[in-house]
Q: What sequence folds into this?
């Protein structure tokens, strides 16, 4: 197993532009009828301060952190993820997934704090337990 | 302010969704993974983000029905508190999974000027009596604001 210790940073993963087209595809896959993900005119009329931008699905924001963990520890590494959503991710945002190791368990699994940020501002925050391949 | 009574919302605690089966088709996994900005995963692995929609579609419910069960004022009145996803085995595409789901709890919360109902859902994915994954979702059904003075 890769030698990992508390305080290690997970190599960051960048989404340079949150695309509206991907939100529309995601809405169709999820069968999610909520127009905040595809109707910018409607979003502009809501008291969200988002202007004429659409709102990224929560799971999509979370997926950027999954991609970061996969690139670090392999595509079957995730055992558990817990995520909160304090701020919105909007179309055209450039966001970066980041993480830091907070614990290494006796069974070899690794616990990380993970978050998604825009210009240093944390939009999503949570933690994950991962297992490196043998 | 027209707010459903706490008792009427709490009636859904213990509600079991019909349950059923779900297969993540290759095309679905491909498009889903593309939405995340990643390349397709190897060995038939499904992208873990599938643990958002596969449980409720497989349990034969929908985002719309989950909003209705909690008496959401509108689709804009829902907020996410948290998602907890546990993977006991990797999710695979083209595998048929058995899925069950229920509403675990409802709590009326008055805090920081907001009134909302905090509703917790849980979904389990199994295959041949083996636990594969679990999703626990907590949503806030916003009811309005109250005067803190």
A:
């Amino acid at each position: 197993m890769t030698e990992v210790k508390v305080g290690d940073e997970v190599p960051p993963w960048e989404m340079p532009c949150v695309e509206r087209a991907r939100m529309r595809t995601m809405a169709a896959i999820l069968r999610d009828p909520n127009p905040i993900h595809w109707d910018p005119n409607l979003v502009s009329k809501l008291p969200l301060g988002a202007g004429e931008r659409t709102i990224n699905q929560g799971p999509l924001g979370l997926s950027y952190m999954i991609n970061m963990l996969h690139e670090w520890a392999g595509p079957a590494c995730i055992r558990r993820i817990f995520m909160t959503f304090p701020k919105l991710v909007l179309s055209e945002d450039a966001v970066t997934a980041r993480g830091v190791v907070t614990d290494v368990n006796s069974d070899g699994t690794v616990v990380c704090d993970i978050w998604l940020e825009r210009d240093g501002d944390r939009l999503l925050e949570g933690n994950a337990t991962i297992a490196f391949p043998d | 302010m027209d707010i459903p009574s706490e008792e009427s919302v709490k009636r859904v605690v213990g509600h079991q969704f019909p349950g059923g089966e779900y297969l993540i088709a290759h095309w679905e996994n491909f498009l889903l993974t593309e939405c995340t900005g990643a390349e397709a995963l190897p060995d038939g692995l499904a992208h873990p983000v599938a643990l958002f929609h596969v449980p409720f579609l497989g349990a034969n419910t929908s985002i719309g029905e989950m909003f209705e069960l909690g008496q959401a004022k509108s689709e804009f009145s829902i907020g996410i508190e948290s998602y907890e996803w546990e993977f006991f085995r990797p999710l695979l595409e083209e595998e048929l999974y058995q899925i069950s789901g229920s509403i675990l709890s409802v709590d009326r919360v008055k805090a920081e000027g907001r009134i909302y109902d905090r509703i917790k859902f849980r979904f389990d994915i199994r295959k041949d009596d083996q636990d594969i994954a679990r999703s626990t979702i907590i949503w806030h059904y916003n009811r309005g604001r109250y005067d803190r003075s």
Summary: Residues 26-36 of chain B form the longest helix (11 residues). Chain B touches chain A at residues 28, 31-32, 34-38, 41-43, 45, 47-49, 52-53, 57, 62-64, 75-76, 79-87, 90 (CB under 8 Å). Chain B has one domain: 6-145. The helical segments of chain B are 6-10, 26-36, 50-58, 63-69.
